[in-house]
Amino acid sequence: MFQGIDSERLIANLHGVARSPVTRRSALMGLGSLAGAVGLGACAPGPGQGAGEAPAARQSLGLDFRRAEDNLTAWVKLVSSLEDGVETCGYFTGTQYADVHPQEVIRPLFRIQGFGMSRVTKLPDGRYQNLHREVVYYLDLKEDRILEEWTNPLTGETVEVFHTHNDPVNSHYAPSFTQRFGTEAEGIETVEFPFILPWDIFGDRAVVSFAVNTRWPSPLPPEKWPREHFGEWYRTSEYFQIHASLADLNDPDLPKAHYTGAWQKIAPWHPWMLMDNRPGGIVGITNVFSLDGVEQLPPHVLSYTEQHYPKWLHAPTEWVEPNMATWETFARERTPAPPRQGK
User: Fold this and answer.
1) Distances 226 to 153, 159, 339 between C-alpha atoms, Å
2) CA spacing 20 to 30 A to 34: which of 10, 27, 66, 132?
3) What average pLDDT does the segment 99-111 reach?
4) What is the mean pLDDT of residues 63-67?
5) How far apart are CA 109 and CA 263, in angstroms?
6) How high is the mean pLDDT of the chain?
7) Is the Cβ–Cβ distance between 308 and 301 less than 8 Å?
């Protein structure tokens, strides 16, 4: 999800310099995942005006999106807040589908809903430190009911659902990044690139759209996880569209800017679906929203989190390593499923 994407990996994708398979650690330096993480940081609406009053002139930061520093300012206002240490929250909701074969109809499997909690602080060197954690729940297609068990329509088997609860998903945002490619034997190439995002501006509408394509070795080897295994690599592609008011981004009195957006994801089957490494995978279509706080979460999401994952109602308060990905957490907390009955 949107908030779960490494900002360095994001910019590497945008600049076309990600020429070698991403490592698990570099891919997991969470962005906030947007994430899924997606749950971007909470953003308050701009100041209102009384009926009949002429709109007051607003001061402007004069953001120039050709400059890395201005991209960084706008990005932090979206994903969290320029006010150091403020806890922020973003919510996402959508549906995940089964893509079984190029010649078969894609069909819905379940809905997803979740949120991410972030806390951003500016560091003395000009970078921003993002402390983040996130949850993703799987729901019935028709009811606001978070699933504990689910009958897989592709296999007919009832399985235990594993809800995502990643902690930590920390990262740094910076005006520039450096990556090294190659080996000592073949020669090492160093590439430095600025933090510049692909913005589209239409009047007061500011839209940033981008894709992040990554893969890293599967944490679920087939000799231990024969039913959960989804291949040698965990390969995922995520596509984002984030919409905000240009005036809000430019307003020096607003440390955070309201946004809406969309997040699409292509990934292998979830291990808990017990697909026995069958061909195909997941396609997810999700909307993302800024919230003013967890009290604005849907009641069933807030209640379930209070009961099962209360820690995730708040952002972390200190840097902890390493970052955790969903299927690493799965490997720690689950044991391999027994063979399918009848086989």
Assistant:
1) 20, 15, 8
2) 66
3) 97
4) 96
5) 17
6) 86
7) no
Is the separation of the CB atoms in 117 and 315 below 8 Å?
yes
- The span from the first CA to the last CA of the chain, in angstroms, equals 36
What's 220's DSSP letter?
A: S
- Cβ-based burial of 317 (10 A; exposed 0-12, middle 13-18, buried ≥19): exposed
pLDDT in tens, 210-247: 999 998 899 999 999 999 999 999 999 999 999 999 99
Q: Report which of 142, 141, 138, 129 is spatially closest to residue 165, judged by C-alpha positions.
A: 138
- Residue 66 has which token pair? 């050709």
Whether the Cβ atoms of residue 85 and residue 46 lie closer than 8 Å to each other: no
Residue 331: φ, ψ to 5°: -65, -30
- Would you state the structure tokens that stand for residue 267, as one six-digit string? 């990934």
341 band by pLDDT with thresholds 50, 70 and 90: confident
For the CA atoms of 102, 19, 72, 127, what is the dihedral angle to 10 degrees? 130
Q: What span, in angstroms and rounded, lies between the C-alpha atoms of 182 and 175?
A: 24
- Taking only the tens place, the pLDDT of each residue in 32-56 is 333 333 343 333 333 333 444 555 6
3-state secondary structure of 242: strand
Q: Are 39 and 130 in contact (CB under 8 A)?
A: no
Residue indicated by tokens 């994430």: 35
Lowest mean pLDDT among 1-10, 121-130, 192-201: 1-10
Q: Report the percentage of the chain scoring pLDDT > 90.
A: 74
pTM of structure: 0.85
Report the amino acid identity of residue 95.
Answer: T
* Measured distance CA(129)–CA(9) in Å, rounded: 16
Nearest C-alpha neighbor of 134 from the set 39, 41, 6: 39
Q: Residues with Cβ < 8 Å from 122, sequence gap 6 or more?
A: 82, 84, 128, 129
Residue with tokens 């490592």: 23
Contacts for 183 with CB less than 8 Å, ≥ 6 apart: none
Domain range list for the chain: 2-43+66-333
